[in-house]
Design brief:
248 residues, alpha+beta, seven-stranded mixed beta sheet, globular
């Protein structure tokens, strides 16, 4: 495996990392460093600004198996875990600019299954959105909801309200938005978000989006991105597919 594409989870990005230090090493470690900004768990994030009309996405997940937080063929040899916060603009950019290519190249081809781990770094509105996403996931449409929510945010920069969450859910075919609203405080939703927080703590995650690749029985490896491009992820997946497993 090309070591420039990964770092072991124990070396995950810390709270004290500074973008300036990464920039100074950029020429030497261009394929290693996280060249995009990340949203951090340091209080409320500024309100998101609209980025122009973002259309599409209706059929993005059509035909792909979906079960709660998991998207893709259950027997896929590689798992890509995404830690995200629905208030994070960088998570939104990843979902709209990078993820569609990963779906077409690697999820639809049954090479990779995706796992969505929803964190709530930015206060009550993060929790509000995360609970709604998990509740929609109980109807098997979490990924569609997250995509629809991010597209509305990108287009309008609207604040997170119950009205917005209901609207996003109602725009996903087959979802009962009122039922999802009623299930936001269910034990299943609470358990899912608690599990995401526990896993993030174990992996020392301090910023999102955070991506981890793994094969069954192996430790997760944090994927380092150089830009909002699918190419580093595709390259890492392709290398992991052919990498020999360690002995034993």
């Amino acid at each position: 495996m090309n070591p420039e594409l990964f770092e072991r989870y124990a070396l995950a990005h810390s709270r004290n990392s500074r973008p300036g230090a990464a920039a100074r090493r950029g020429a030497l470690l261009a394929a290693l460093l996280l060249g995009i900004s990340a949203c951090h768990d340091a209080g409320e994030e500024p309100a998101q600004e609209p980025t122009g009309a973002i259309s599409g996405g209706i059929d993005l997940y059509s035909g792909i198996p979906q079960d709660g937080i998991v998207l893709g063929e259950p027997s896929a040899p590689i798992t890509l875990v995404e830690f995200s916060d629905l208030r994070c603009s960088h998570c939104r950019d990843y979902a709209l600019e990078v993820l569609p290519a990963i779906l077409e190249r690697h999820v639809r081809t049954k090479q990779v299954k995706l796992v969505f781990r929803n964190l709530a770094f930015f206060g009550p509105s993060s929790v509000q959105a995360a609970r709604m996403a998990a509740a929609v996931g109980m109807q098997g449409r979490l990924w569609d909801f997250v995509d629809r929510f991010f597209r509305i945010q990108a287009r309008e920069g609207a604040p997170i309200t119950d009205e917005l969450l209901l609207r996003a859910a109602s725009e996903v075919p087959g979802v009962d938005a009122e039922q999802a609203m009623a299930q936001r405080d269910s034990a299943e939703v609470v358990q899912q978000l608690d599990a995401a927080r526990a896993e993030a703590a174990a992996l020392q995650i301090r910023g999102v989006p955070a991506l981890f690749l793994s094969r069954e029985g192996e430790s997760p490896r944090r994927l380092r991105l150089t830009s909002m491009s699918p190419e580093p992820i595709s390259q890492a997946i392709e290398q992991l597919l052919i990498e020999p497993r360690p002995p034993g």
